[in-house]
């Protein structure tokens, strides 16, 4: 006969009574098979947070093992998609009858996508940090997708200052020459004396969170990446041949951006798509002129929605 073990969670009461918003586990490491719109299902190495509320003030605690085992079942024999996320949240609550009526789960992982080069037709992998968060709040379901997109931003102020220096160098070189020779100018422009200054660019990160429409049944990871990268125009590249690098230089030159410009661009893009109920975005320009970052934040402005 098995030894009877003490069951603190069930058989004792709280020393100090009180309800709690969230109780659960954070940073659970698990392989998860993820389904995303337009992509083959793929395994990711995820960190998972799993929570329920504790609405019974006298109860000692929740049953962490029940949350863990429901997650393990998803990891071991299912795929993370809209339906399984809802089932998981339902399971969190039904396994905590009398104790909980809210549930939350967050999966954080790197999601790899094949991305095309700009000109050469080559392809390469890019890893996007993604989180999928589901919340069930007194029967109301909320699903949030968040991801980071890295891109390059060239400073418009620096570009203007560099152009001024190039104009000055041109004047100094050719102002005494009444009959400026086109070939001479062409050759001179191809030297570092001609293009005497270059503007600074920086590795930049757009962080974005969206609330999925209730009609969305697939995680639109690729759609969201495409939307952001097509709007910013200068995402970091995977496979790069020289023709790709030259095109990247052109795109940078034609898409000069302060962090305000990048935020307004994405704000406009997100406002004209009806795919999402709400959005929050934060633009980080990891400055190369400064040792600090230039940052801008905005939201859709929904009442009771995301706050900046
Ligand atoms: N509630 C709670 N459990 C904790 C905490 N830290 C560790 N645990 C452990 O989580 C383990 C699993 O708890 P339960 O889910 O109640 O385990 P169980 O009683 O075997 O499972 P059930 O029979 O389904 O209730 C226990 O061994 C707890 O000690 C904590 O801060 N709060």
From TrEMBL:
Pathway: Cofactor biosynthesis; 7,8-dihydroneopterin triphosphate biosynthesis; 7,8-dihydroneopterin triphosphate from GTP: step 1/1. Keywords: Hydrolase. The keyword Hydrolase applies. The keyword Transmembrane helix does not apply. GO terms for biological process: tetrahydrofolate biosynthetic process. Its EC number is 3.5.4.16. It holds the Pfam family GCHY-1. The record marks 155 as: May be catalytically important. It comes from the Bacteria. InterPro entries: GTP_cyclohydrolase_FolE2 (IPR022838), GTP_cyclohydrolase_FolE2/MptA (IPR003801). GO terms for molecular function: GTP cyclohydrolase I activity. It catalyses: GTP + H2O = 7,8-dihydroneopterin 3'-triphosphate + formate + H(+). Belongs to the GTP cyclohydrolase IV family. Converts GTP to 7,8-dihydroneopterin triphosphate. HAMAP family: GTP_cyclohydrol_B. This is GTP cyclohydrolase FolE2. It comes from Cognaticolwellia beringensis.
